[in-house]
Inverse folding.
């Protein structure tokens, strides 16, 4: 891949946060992490919706990977337990939140 593709330029005196550039961290079901490739193209409204959904999904995935459920609310805990109980359907990832 071209290392210069999608790079931003920042002039002296300007600053951008890592979050502004990359967006929120995504926790994948296997525990790997990544970022959204289209974050910078999203509107503010889209970003707010994505963050709300992604944070819930990340909390559930983290709990599924670590067994730590204290940080989950009741709805998230139910979704985690439903997912863990449904081991026969490989097409039922935690993406369906």
């Amino acid at each position: 891949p071209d290392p210069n593709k999608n790079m931003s330029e920042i002039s002296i005196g300007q600053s951008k946060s890592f979050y502004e550039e990359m967006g929120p961290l995504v926790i994948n079901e296997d525990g790997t992490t990544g970022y959204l490739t289209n974050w910078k193209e999203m509107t503010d409204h889209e970003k707010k919706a994505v963050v709300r959904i992604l944070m819930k999904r990340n909390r559930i995935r983290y709990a599924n990977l670590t067994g730590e459920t204290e940080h989950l609310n009741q709805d998230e805990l139910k979704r985690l337990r439903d997912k863990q109980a449904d081991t026969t359907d490989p097409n039922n990832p935690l993406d369906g939140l």
